[in-house]
Design a protein that fits this description.
5-stranded antiparallel β-sheet, single chain, 7 helices, two-stranded antiparallel ribbon, alpha+beta, 7 strands
Length: 168
């Protein structure tokens, strides 16, 4: 699995957007920049996510996560912190999963895109706070579940870029 992003060096967005448009229909290509609902993609969640949040991610850059959450039409089931900076005990990457764990594992086993969203933020977040937002599931394994408390905490954090998991 790899990540797909339109965020590159300054001045590279046009080329990167062109590269990410391979396989995008002419109807969609002609409306780049406009948000398209999930129903427009006939419930093709991967197409919806790639178009709205990768190809058109400039709409979300330097915006608060609440703006992203308001547009996102698929539920977030859980989140986890990205790579931890052990010196500062922080991370500036959040990982959101739109499928619950059994569906996520099934997608991976079938070599399908599990639609993991990676959001890089402009400021690092303290690991201890992320740990406080964690909940325990029925197997007593700590899993950061998505709930209103987490949504409120992350809402004001600013986005640098958004990437999606991508199967080969």
């Amino acid at each position: 699995m790899q990540a797909v992003s339109c965020h590159g060096q300054e001045g590279d967005k046009t080329n990167e957007n062109s590269n990410n448009l391979k396989g995008v229909s002419d109807k969609v290509r002609d409306s780049i920049g406009n948000y398209k609902s999930l129903s427009f993609f006939k419930l093709d969640t991967v197409g919806y996510m790639e178009y709205n949040f990768v190809i058109n991610q400039q709409k979300y850059e330097q915006r608060e996560l609440s703006y992203f959450f308001n547009d996102l039409e698929v539920p977030i089931h859980n989140f986890s912190p990205g790579e931890l900076d052990r010196k500062t005990m922080t991370t500036n990457v959040l990982i959101f999963n739109v499928y619950n764990d059994p569906v996520y594992r099934h997608k991976i086993e079938d070599s399908k895109n599990p639609l993991t969203i990676f959001v890089r933020l402009d400021q690092p977040l303290p690991y201890l706070k992320l740990n406080q937002l964690s909940k325990r599931n029925s197997m007593n394994i700590e899993v950061p579940l998505w709930d209103e408390e987490a949504k409120r905490y992350f809402a004001s954090k600013k986005i640098i870029d958004i990437t999606l998991s991508k199967t080969k």
